[in-house]
Amino acid sequence: CIICVYVQEITIKSEHYKDVVAKEELVYLTSDSPNILEEMDPTKAYVIGGLVDHNHHKGITFEKAKELGIDHAQLPLSSFVKMNSRKVLAVNHVCEIILAYLEKGSWKEAFFTVLPQRKGAVAVDKDGADHQEKEAEDSDSDSDPETQQHTEKAQT
């Protein structure tokens, strides 16, 4: 089953997507694509394909998109989220993230609304550091002004 997501509607078709939508209107969403989806184009249909075992079929959806001459992209996950687990998402999570993005207009909000806690998702700052790293740096004793004063006095 392939799911085509238009910005206005979601339809589930049993036919192959290349038989339903012109390839110029398609964007295949695959975590293997080097292209990052910044925003959704209302003139495009987004294909979400799913494999039960991604480890045995690494890159197959990306290769299929290239073979068929279909544009491809991945969700901007790493721009907003750092996870403990692999960044490959289940089809239902991709659908829910897209719906949340369309509702909220924010990828960050969409990711944190949908991603399950077991993924260990942490927000990434604009400079690429995750919030946990930043908090650890901020709480470091070397950056504490009171500790610095004691250290400076001990050195003199």
UniProtKB/TrEMBL annotation:
E.C. number(s) listed in UniProt: 2.1.1.221
Residue spans crossing the bilayer: none
UniProt GO BP: tRNA N1-guanine methylation
UniProt name for this protein: tRNA (guanine(9)-N(1))-methyltransferase
Biased composition (Acidic residues): 135-145
Domain of life, per lineage: Eukaryota
UniProt entry keywords in alphabetical sequence: Methyltransferase, S-adenosyl-L-methionine, Transferase
Compositional bias annotation for Basic and acidic residues: 124-134, 147-156
Enzyme class at the top of the EC tree: transferase
Organism: Notothenia coriiceps
Residue numbers spanned by region Disordered: 122-156
Entry GO CC: cytosol; nucleoplasm
Domain (SAM-dependent MTase TRM10-type) ranges: 1-122
GO molecular function, one term: tRNA (guanosine(9)-N1)-methyltransferase activity
InterPro entries with a match to the protein in the record: MT_TRM10-typ (IPR028564), MT_TRM10-typ_sf (IPR038459), tRNA_m1G_MeTrfase_euk (IPR007356)
Catalyzed reactions per annotation: guanosine(9) in tRNA + S-adenosyl-L-methionine = N(1)-methylguanosine(9) in tRNA + S-adenosyl-L-homocysteine + H(+)
